Amino acid sequence: MHLHYLRELDDRFEIAALCDLSRTIVDGLGDTYGVSRRFTDWTALLDEPLDVVMVLTSGSHEPIAVAAARAGRHLFIEKPIALSEAEGQAIIAAGQKAGVRIMVGYMKRYDPAVERMAHELQGFTQLRFASSTTAEYPLKWYVGHYPVIRGTDIEASLVSRLQAEDEARVTAAINVSDQILRQAYRHALLDSMIHDINLMRGLLGEPRGLRFASVTQSAVSLFVEFPQTAASMHWVNLQDGVARYRQEFTFFGPQQRATLVFPSPFLRSAPIELVLEGGSLDTSRSWRTVETISFESAFKRELVEFYECVTDDREPRTTAVDAVRDVALCQVIIKYVTSGQPG
After folding, report:
1. Which of the residues in the chain have pLDDT under 50?
2. Which residues have C-beta within 8 Å of that of residue 140, sequence separation ≥ 6?
3. pLDDT tens figures, 160-173
4. Going by C-beta distance under 8 Å and a sequence separation of 6 or more, which residues neighbour residue 163?
5. How far apart are alpha carbons 235 and 249 in whole angstroms?
6. FRET label pair with 96: which of 67, 141, 194, 286, CA 20 to 30 Å apart?
7. Beta strands 129-136 and 230-237: pairing type?
8. What is the reported pLDDT for 343?
9. Predicted structure pTM score
10. What gap in Å lies between CA 64 and CA 203, rounded to an integer?
11. Measured distance CA(316)–CA(76) in Å, rounded
12. pLDDT at 342
């Protein structure tokens, strides 16, 4: 979701080098995007004279991010920033010491409909409750129409070593052996629901505490106290189901209600619906509107934000510090489930 938008933004970005473990993938993308500098070893990539490194790997981002910061490279890091709070703090420290900018890829925070929701919430006379539900359906139907390049040429020994390293980092983060909790932490929370957590924090502020958490193989449910109100948050695993992705955030007041309805993030330029509801306190009259705010891509808008935060030397909306708080809350969720103690 990044390379084609980088190419569209060629007045701001040049894709100077590519790195992937698979030679098939890096060569295929290099040919597609006209990039001659291609690597399968990220340490060699950092020897290139780059302004920025985008860390988009599926494993821990800490080793690459810390090394890139020390090399003086500004960083765009996909969420989650790290697999633990400790890893995230190491990235922050490296960035601060080197004086580089770090932005984390929470693209939904840059969607015009989300920005509009923040404005709508300011007009609520009272906010009594909030809720979010994400129904995670199969990914393949939402990306199958794109020319995705896949490679099977990574050595099995390397894959095994990286998987073992990933497991060790999860153990260091949550120190549990229960496989359901480990999978939920690594994939349901860090890979998906962390978007929901960050978006709710962006709209409601820093949580005061976690009052309830349930984590199973099929669902995660949370009850979180925020400064203005409480929120229930639910993530449902339907990845073996039909292609019906659904994500909603709703905010309840006595005089108004507002909902964001998200399509799959992999459908380019598919708009978020903003549903606004209200009515009269003296009669039964009520109303409901459904608005399309924009067809702009949130992925593209976050890249513009990244460009501006580097060139203007300012903090982005989604900072490394902000992202580490999300990871820390994910760790607290697992701790709550294992100990029963509120966080």
Report:
1. none
2. none
3. 999 999 999 999 99
4. none
5. 12
6. 194
7. parallel
8. 62
9. 0.96
10. 31
11. 10
12. 65
| pLDDT tens digits, one per residue of 292-334 | 999 999 999 999 999 999 999 999 999 999 999 999 999 999 9
Collapsing DSSP to helix, strand or coil, 176 comes out as coil
Cβ 199 vs Cβ 108: under 8 Å: yes
3-state secondary structure of 195: helix
Q: Domains, the chain, ranges and CATH?
A: 3-107 (3.40.50.720), 109-297+320-339 (3.30.360.10)
What is the identity of the amino acid at 28? G
CA–CA separation, 197 vs 327, rounded Å?
10
CB distance 176 to 88 below 8 Å: no
The per-residue pLDDT for 266 is 94
Six token digits for residue 33 = 């995007």
Residue 340 is predicted with a pLDDT of 78
The dihedral over CA atoms of 332, 196, 268, 74, expressed in degrees to the nearest 10, equals -50
